[in-house]
Amino acid sequence: MTQNLLELHGVHTHIGAYHILHGVDLVVPRGQLTMLLGRNGAGKTTTLRTIMGLWQASQGHITFNGQDITKKHTPQIAGLNIAYVPENMGIFADLTVKENMVLAARSAKTAAQIDQARLQWIFKLFPAVEKFWNHPAGKLSGGQKQMLAVSRAIVEPRDLLIIDEPSKGLAPAIINNMIDAFRQLKESDVTILLVEQNISFAKRLGDTVAVMDNGRVVHAGSMAALAEDEALQRSLLGLAL
């Protein structure tokens, strides 16, 4: 088993005429939570979408668990036990919360076939998921949709979770629930890659960090070390944590 579950080497991504990623080098250590930080427009979301095959890398390569996935299609990548929560959450608005969860639980065809112990754990983390179980997902508030999106990602055990701004739109109390959820997931040896703008969230959760600017990773290391170095924070992010 390799130490790093996910690795990107020299990854370039073009979207039409636009060259967005300019040789991204990124490692995501197995069993850790890696924060991907950077100013708006730095290339963070494009990096996640390229990992998932939604956009194809034009150069470089991506490996997951030692396997080259650079040219694989998104369903094949998801089939390797990777869950992705995009910034727009990707829920099915016309389906109920329950139906959204059943779709995400690939081994279940009905709600009764979902792992009930895991489902009860999710309900404790995000009570709104249980409260609105039979409601159309499109009727939920923004924060409730975010909780549903993360719940879908964790309804079955995954080897890697890739989540784009999970705290976006959430009230502080729900953010604390989210942090608790990710901590529990880390304890179960799940590897997590998070893009996040909430710096307090990043400090409390991150093991390792990569900072992007202008389509490249310009800093990588310990999250704790970055959190303690205000000069480095200002240099990389234009602000202090």
UniProtKB/TrEMBL annotation:
SMART domains in the cross-refs: AAA (SM00382)
Tagged with keyword Cell membrane: yes
Any one of the GO BP annotations: L-amino acid transport
Domain of life where this protein originates: Bacteria
Keywords from the named record: Amino-acid transport, ATP-binding, Cell membrane, Membrane, Nucleotide-binding, Transport
Residue ranges occupied by any ABC transporter domain in the UniProt entry: 6-239
Protein family membership: Belongs to the ABC transporter superfamily.
Pfam families recorded: ABC_tran
Cited PANTHER family: ABC TRANSPORTER ATP-BINDING PROTEIN, HIGH-AFFINITY BRANCHED-CHAIN AMINO ACID TRANSPORT ATP-BINDING PROTEIN LIVF
CDD domains given in the database record: ABC_TM1139_LivF_branched
MF (Gene Ontology): ATP binding; ATP hydrolysis activity; branched-chain amino acid transmembrane transporter activity
Protein's UniProt name: ABC transporter ATP-binding protein
